[in-house]
Amino acid sequence: MTRTDILALAKRYVPVLDWGRSYTRDAFQNDLLAAVIVTIMLIPQSLAYALLAGLPPEAGLYASILPIVLYAIFGTSRALAVGPVAVVSLMTAAAIGQVAEQGTAGYAVAALTLAVLSGGILLAMGLLKLGFLANFLSHPVIAGFITASGILIAASQVRYILGIDAHGHTLPEVLYTLNENMNDADPVTIALGLGALGFLFWVRKGLKPLLLRMGVRPRLADIAQKAGPVGAVVVTTLIVWAFGLAEQGVAIVGAVPQSLPPLTMPDLSADLVSALFVPALLISVIGFVESVSVAQTLAAKKRQRIDPDQELIGLGAANLGAGFTGGYPVTGGFARSVVNFDAGAETPAAGAYTAVGLAIAALALTPLIFFLPKATLAATIIVAVLSLVDFSILKTSWGYSKADFAAVAATILLTLGMGVETGVTAGVLLSILLHLYKTSKPHVAEVGLVPGTQHFRNIHRHAVDTDPAVLTIRIDESLYFPNARFLEDYVLNRVAGDKAVKHVVLMCSAVNVIDFSALEALEALNLRLKDMGITLHLSEVKGPVMDRLQRSHFLHDLTGRVFLAQFDAWVALTQAPAPEPERQAAE
Amino acid sequence: MTRTDILALAKRYVPVLDWGRSYTRDAFQNDLLAAVIVTIMLIPQSLAYALLAGLPPEAGLYASILPIVLYAIFGTSRALAVGPVAVVSLMTAAAIGQVAEQGTAGYAVAALTLAVLSGGILLAMGLLKLGFLANFLSHPVIAGFITASGILIAASQVRYILGIDAHGHTLPEVLYTLNENMNDADPVTIALGLGALGFLFWVRKGLKPLLLRMGVRPRLADIAQKAGPVGAVVVTTLIVWAFGLAEQGVAIVGAVPQSLPPLTMPDLSADLVSALFVPALLISVIGFVESVSVAQTLAAKKRQRIDPDQELIGLGAANLGAGFTGGYPVTGGFARSVVNFDAGAETPAAGAYTAVGLAIAALALTPLIFFLPKATLAATIIVAVLSLVDFSILKTSWGYSKADFAAVAATILLTLGMGVETGVTAGVLLSILLHLYKTSKPHVAEVGLVPGTQHFRNIHRHAVDTDPAVLTIRIDESLYFPNARFLEDYVLNRVAGDKAVKHVVLMCSAVNVIDFSALEALEALNLRLKDMGITLHLSEVKGPVMDRLQRSHFLHDLTGRVFLAQFDAWVALTQAPAPEPERQAAE
Predict the structure, then answer these.
(1) Local structure of A470: helix, strand or coil
(2) ipTM greater than 0.90, yes or no?
(3) Does the beta-carbon distance from A453 to B567 stay under 8 Å?
(4) Which of B512, B527, B530 to mutate to test the interface with A (most CBs of A within 10 A)?
(5) Is B518:B512 a contact under the CB 8 Å cutoff?
(6) Where is the signal peptide, in residue numbers (chains A, B) (predicted)?
(7) Segments forming the whole domain that contains residue B448
(8) Which of A141, A155, A213, B509 sees the fewest Cβ atoms within 10 Å?
């Protein structure tokens, strides 16, 4: 390889080499401001999501430092902010809850392992260019999954607002255990929690308009709104400290080690790896899909394109980083990325500065959150995730297609009722099965000539010319094994009663594949029709399909011809009803 | 319901009421002759297949009596002969080998349960009209599975020829255990076995020509050939008896109860049912596919049609019958059905007469086969199944499509290496995955006008007219979630560099479905192109697809128009480059 080749390759896999060289002071200033805003927002969020994942709060901070830097080096999105996110935190809790007890050392180690596994999977998918696999998560399945997860997450946090114990990875479990321990509810905690909840909801809706009316500059009002959670954290922490509520049983964050992210070793023993592999795979794919859709949305606004396969590499690196520095699985979060984007981040460098900010927080600020009540963190989570809950997809998909509706409904119900992993898996499988079922009973139209054109359409939908001796059938599906016998039966039943038919033309404009089973079926059809004295023709066979047919015996045995255009078939057959042996290829 | 309704319904579900009334003496004579020939052939075959299934020989006879009668009543094929067949016998052995020890009472009961389960499944599928499910077994998968099964069966019978012990449900297992016990090989048994093998192969190939040369009437020569196995049975039995070979360690059939099929009760305990359900399902589907393809082949020769869903009911009844009369799973066999057909059977009544013949055999002839050496039965099986082995499918599928080849190869290898159930399941899953993979990266063609026509084809394959301002893209696949983002990326990348493009026309002649995910992608594409000042149009949208689009907002937001024919789009856009708001529906 020449030096330029190496450089090109390096630039491809390490985008920073590309945008890094053209980094200007302007960009630097914008990135820095964005970083400050995002940092302020991320501190409480990181602590809260760690709580959601069942991990100590510092894990949330650690998971936001090195991963951000690594993504800044390997990722392609200019605005994506990587770190702990709600859905992945929930999936993490569900996954490692099966292999270790919360609060044990094993639990934290399992989280590291999960991050490394998912990092490895993402990296492998990226290098193997398997980004397209994410497409098998259909839009309805994702929408349903996110909504259901939002509900699950909110429900799982209610216990901190009430100051009681509850657990479970399905809605019934959570509600049941909540109800069981309802009597232990602590009024003081509830007051704090509801207070924080009310405040945060108000910040979201009411603060900015108020400030604007008070003549505050929009940009500043924006920042104030983003800083709302910090306000809640500060105020509630002070209250707890001032009135010594911790002694009265208000659950607090407590001592958080004052340090940079530690170097940690995941446990890669065969048992743990095999136990966590499937969850890691699901987390990787879900995280990737969420991240890519955010990145694409933001990139589009600036006419930028992102490279999904390189995104896999960026996220893979980020997760490996998380696994070796005391974190847990991370991905590109919607909220933080939008904030980053709105705050004017121009390059991934903004992410790096955010990392520095969080590192400082981890070093210096952790003692200040000793008295931070868990209820406040729970409140920030609830406010954040309830914005994910959106049932409108049920209505829109119902109106458009029952199959898509079924996929959404199944995903929502199963996620709530049987947990995130079952829910998303079932959603994907169901959408595939429904597709296979549809293609196994394809739509078939008998077509005729639209007068005055060379265009053929369904005789039942349009006023078209037909010829009793020429039966033209347009099959609206690729011909492959699930529907191979279908066409044979359809045609034979159609011509059975109709003595007038002398020619059957299969219009193949919608046939994108003819697999081996379908080829067999076509050969059988050709023979059966021959026995009945009917000639079989094809028309509008596509290039790739024709290439394949030419490698088989079918074109040899075909009693009729292959016409380039349906109109050619019409002209030839309606004028010369006698079948002709001579044949003409479509290519 | 009126009396006629009931009659019609009865005729539909009990075809015998239909053909039964027009039964003539001619038909009776032909059926009777066919029955005699088939009976002669079935006696040794039934005993042999029971041996293959690991059951006592009489089970094979029992499985051929009531089931035949029930199929004659409920089945739709005139020539299909139902009973034990090689592949299903092998699958039976594999299935019940997992829940019971061969030779134990539990083993025989498990066989009954398996038959009843598969009967119930088939009946349910028939009443629910699920016959189409069989199509998911693609032709290559079936071909590969039959070939591999043939090899497995032949290998499993070698032990009887050598007079040694061996077991296993995969080729490695069988070969390994054979090799282990090779030292116990019994020369006398080997002599008998090889003799029988040689004789049967010769009968298959050499006997008929010889007789014809000797001037024997063809019909008679045919019958003689069919009777070959009986000859081998008689001769070897006499040899064993005359020379007292049984005492010298030649394995014989021994005492077979002299009785009509007994009334038996399957064990339907939850454990056994849940253990056997999946195998029963596989046996049902495989058996159904084999049976239907035989029935269709024979029906076609006489211009008759068979009803797959009614076939399910017929086979279901037959298997229920087998389960309650000491048999095991049965289906329509190829060999016996062809014999029945060639012998001139005209109605299912022939089957009923065969049943009578076999009942007489079960009552009267069983003592005569006391000294029948198992080696002879093994020989008849080997000769029968080796005719199933056909590797040509590997070559033909390789030439036609690598995906189909992969499915065949995987099915053969996994069936031999990991057993029949894994093999066939993997084959089906692989063919589905390969199809999904293909559709996730569809073929897309940029098309132009074929001069002098209204027909549009690939610009890279045909000499066509194009207009730099009008980019027409024909996507050769339904638009659904696996490829939803693909089109968006493709179009955006295509127009990115090309400033000349003012209009993008998506030619939808090959788009049979636009699901919700694809709709989202189209809406995104429409907006992105709008931002670039490019108008998006559709053409040749099919009725069913258009119906759906009209239920969405897309047609409202679409910047361009929907053209009935691509030629209309060409005329409108190449003449009037300015985008027009006014829209025209495809319907």
Answers:
(1) strand
(2) no
(3) yes
(4) B512
(5) no
(6) none
(7) 444-586
(8) A213
